[in-house]
Write a structure and sequence with these properties.
The chain is α+β, with helices and mostly antiparallel strands and about 260 residues long. It has two domains: about 140 residues, Regulatory protein AraC (Jelly Rolls, Sandwich), CATH 2.60.120.280; about 100 residues, Homeodomain-like (Arc Repressor Mutant, subunit A, Orthogonal Bundle). The radius of gyration is 19 Å and the shape is globular. This is Transcriptional regulator, AraC family. One of its GO terms (molecular function) is DNA-binding transcription factor activity. Keywords: Activator, DNA-binding, Repressor, Transcription, Transcription regulation.
């Protein structure tokens, strides 16, 4: 379903740049295989965006997912790893800001509207050392304005800091259709259900059921984007019926799977 290490993942190279040639720098990649990077950080903001495919960014705080028409804002200095689904057309934008306090400090998923999408496409076709004082520089400035104003969308999964919850969540990430109750998990981890429930809210801001549902639905985005049948994806996610899956999907994302990927 999602990149959980079940399939062979090719390592993707990380550009070794001491500084950016321009305040806004683009990198285009075609990735036929599922790929991943080791955990790393940059001295600049990275915006990772896929024209095709689904991108997953993982940090110590959580997991962030971007299907097409969404992008992930990764702050400067934040350690992260990037995973891509097979057959991904990826565009990375690196942003250097002399006033880093102006940049958003948190990793987040952004909505990319039609205008911003076309600006990204156009910018990625420019020479690396584009003329900052000419039309290319003005295009870059408009794109930066659009990125700073892009709305955040709810396509992230917070991860807990408590070691017991980390163990539980790691297992669910490997097997999201696991239907065990929180009480059953408590018995296995030798922790009361009440304590686990309190820790989930403290560390993630979500109940256990809400966290597991979001995990499943975010994991469904990759197979859905690749064209797998909704019924098959629903079963893989642990749903007993397609209608229940679609209802949960609509509640989480505000659209049915078909509407979500046609937006």
């Amino acid at each position: 379903m999602s990149p959980n290490g079940q399939n062979s993942i090719a390592e993707r190279s990380i550009p070794q740049l001491e500084q950016l040639p321009r305040p806004l720098y683009a990198r285009n990649e075609s990735l036929p295989r599922q790929t991943g990077t080791p955990r790393h950080s940059h001295a600049w903001v990275q915006l990772t965006y896929a024209i095709q495919g689904v991108l997953h960014v993982r940090t110590a705080a959580g997991s962030f997912v971007a299907p097409p028409q969404r992008a992930i804002w990764i702050p400067a200095g934040l350690e992260h790893e990037v995973l891509s689904s097979p057959n991904t057309e990826m565009r990375s934008l690196y942003l250097y800001d002399e006033n880093p306090e102006n940049a958003h400090p948190d990793c987040r998923v952004l909505g990319v509207d039609a205008l911003t999408r076309e600006l990204i496409r156009s910018f990625c076709e420019l020479p690396v050392e584009y003329d900052e004082s000419g039309p290319d520089g003005r295009l870059a400035a408009v794109l930066l304005d659009r990125l700073h104003a892009a709305p955040e969308v709810r396509l992230s999964l917070p991860l807990p800091s408590d070691p017991r919850l980390k163990k539980l969540c790691s297992r669910l990430q490997r097997k999201p259709d696991d239907d065990r109750t929180l009480a059953a998990w408590g018995n296995e981890l030798d922790v009361s259900e009440k304590t686990l429930s309190r820790l989930f809210l403290r560390d993630t801001g979500l109940t256990f059921r809400a966290w597991r549902q979001r995990l499943r639905l975010l994991g469904a985005l990759t197979p859905l984007e690749s064209g797998e049948r909704v019924t098959d994806v629903a079963l893989l996610c642990g749903y007993d019926s397609t209608s229940a899956f679609i209802a949960a999907f609509r509640q989480q994302f505000g659209a049915t799977p078909g509407e979500f990927f046609s937006s």
